[in-house]
Write a structure and sequence with these properties.
- With 194 residues, the protein is of the alpha+beta class.
- It has a domain of 116 residues: Jelly Rolls.
- The chain is built from 9 helices and 8 strands.
- The strands form 2 sheets. A 4-stranded antiparallel sheet has the order 1-8-3-6. A 4-stranded antiparallel sheet has the order 2-7-4-5.
- A hairpin with a 5-residue loop joins strand 4 and strand 5.
- It is globular, with a radius of gyration of 18 Å.
- The chain starts with a helix and ends with a helix.
- It comes from Flaviramulus multivorans.
- It holds the Pfam family cNMP_binding.
- InterPro entries: cNMP-bd_dom (IPR000595), cNMP-bd_dom_sf (IPR018490), RmlC-like_jellyroll (IPR014710).
């Protein structure tokens, strides 16, 4: 199966889209290679693009005035990535999206996508299904933060990303869990012992 078929199959897993609509989407999309460390969305940037991650790992983080970073999300292939609130409101992004590894991404012009969605019910349905998935992911993350302790948040992260410790630096994992790197090391040792 060629890579384009894989991407089309991924989109069709949300909602069936026609060849004609695939062609329309490709007109507003660009496949890009991004080096690790590249910020694809910068803090306070008013975004106009949304992304589909094809390969690599991206993180989303919030940075405080003092420069401390808090990781909100990690994205693996195939994921939709972007500052949804900033895009919808046409306001500066409060979040930074950064490639942790070299990545392949489809960059989609969000506002042209919205124009296509207004003209075609199946594309509108695809957009709605993608938004539902994004919302459910955020809601699941919120439930984990509220209801699980750090050890169980780490276990859940490992369930979602089995080789997380090889893909993502420990200090980023610790930030995502809301703990220090030392606490993460203790949790990992305890889990290995159990």
């Amino acid at each position: 199966m060629n890579p384009n078929e894989l991407h089309v199959n991924f989109l069709n897993s949300f909602s069936s889209i026609s060849e004609r609509n695939i062609e329309e989407l490709l007109k507003i999309t660009e496949l890009k290679s991004v080096k690790g460390g590249t910020q694809i969305v910068k803090l306070n940037e008013v975004p106009s693009k949304v992304y589909m991650l094809v390969s690599g790992v991206i993180r989303c983080f919030l940075s405080t005035e003092s420069g401390k970073e808090f990781n909100k999300s990690f994205y693996l292939p195939f994921s939709f990535v972007g500052p949804v609130t900033a895009l919808i409101q046409k306001k500066p992004s409060l979040f930074v999206f950064e490639a942790l590894t070299d990545c392949e991404i489809y960059e989609v012009d969000y506002y042209k996508l919205m124009d296509l969605c207004k003209k075609d019910e199946s594309l509108n349905m695809l957009y709605a299904k993608v938004l539902e998935t994004v919302y459910m992911t955020y809601e699941k993350r919120l439930v984990e933060l509220i209801s699980l302790d750090a050890k169980n948040r780490y276990i859940e992260l490992k369930r979602q990303i089995p080789d997380v410790e090889y893909l993502i630096p420990q200090y980023h994992i610790a930030s995502y869990l809301g703990i220090t790197a030392v606490q993460l090391s203790r949790i990992r040792k305890k889990i290995a012992k159990d």
